[in-house]
Target: Arylsulfatase
Amino acid sequence: MKTNLLKKLLLPSAMLVPLAVVAAQQTPNVIVIFMDDMGYGDIGTTGAIGYETPNLDKMAAEGMRFTRFYAAQAVCTASRVGLLTGCYPNRIGYSGALGPSSRIGLGEKEETIADVLRKKGYATAAFGKWHIGHLPHALPPRHGFDEYYGIPYSNDMWPRHPTRKFPDLPLIEGDKTIELNPDQSQFTTNFTNRALQFIDKNKNKPFFLYLAHPMPHVPLAVSEKFKGKSRQGLYGDVIMEIDWSVGQILDKLRREGLEENTLVVVTSDNGPWLNYGNHAGTTGGLREGKGTSFEGGQRVPCIMQWKGTIPAATICNKLSSTLDLLPTFAHIAGAPLPPHKIDGVNIISLLRHEPDANPRESFCYYYRKNNLEAVTDGNFKLIFPHPHRTYEGFAPGVDGKPGPVNEKAKLEIPLLYDLRRDPGERYNVIGQYPEVRAKLEQIAAAIREDIGDDLTGVVGKNNRSPSIAPR
Model:
């Protein structure tokens, strides 16, 4: 024992520190890979049929899969605002999906994940779909990102839209348009390659990478290397290429020795656009889809990997949301939170799989301008009467053509669902659990006082406005 102690004393002090500890002491990198309209059931581990997602499945086997993870809202722009700011989008004046005529952007005092992490010296980049405002004051370079290469809004907002008229779709580098109506079959490959170049350039310092794929939002497009590869037609081909993209990122981290120092999050902005039929994904049995506050609209797939911190092959059944990413990333980077109120909570305890951890005790389902449509405590969900979209009762479209959808449906009575037993929201148990209803009503009353609720006419005390570009 004395000999071993003498050897330890003679070794250089750096050699006494285990490599894992050295890695843990470095500032962690953060990568968010954000899909567009990918449904809860669209990956192998949640039941995808007709194609394989080996990289996402491997990521789940080596990391953590979340089963009750929610997008901030069930529509493109609002969802992305929630992810990047940690705020319910209606708190800061965002709703719906912005188009080419919009003039709004994040308020000057709002901070994105990129803003927060740059305070700790992070290199930051956004590649792919932005959709938080297309004018210069609203683009990523004004909101914490060192690099941006992508499209400013949804890939269907271009002249070839099947039912509406749009101007040319710009491809933007920084804040300059470099091409109009680019070849969408190259989107997944090109944005992935830019992400790999960014990692290579910044592998020796902390970085935040936001890779927001425009797919599988319609119009679907895929490169030649995956065209015709699935048994689910073009949609399956597109998901297989997205899976390839995830694999490219994870392989790059492994080759560079960055796996134990990088948290990778893969999730989606909302559920599938069901009336597009075979060009849409699946909710895996959840009710309704994109554009609704039913589970199929807002419960989304989520996988996280951070080797050495997130235990391998773990399942998280606790309530969590894209709102929680900003405060969690700030925690692991040692960065201060924004000075104003946000709605996300730090979920690092879930990532570490700590027993009895439950950082998020409730989630509020907002839609339209400021409608509080439902609340949940993670077990039960109380749904309030509200107008809503429904896909039920209509035959979906085929091969890129949308089928009909009822945008004027109306729920007339409150509903209570036990999500543990009934994630498909089919059996109203409101009469059986008066104490649960009362608890959820209290949660609703608190958020109404804070942010407001157009359905009940309550004006919130803590709403903030976006910036408006001058004409």
Remarks:
- The chain has a mean pLDDT of 94.
- Residues 68 and 319 are 5 Å apart (CA to CA).
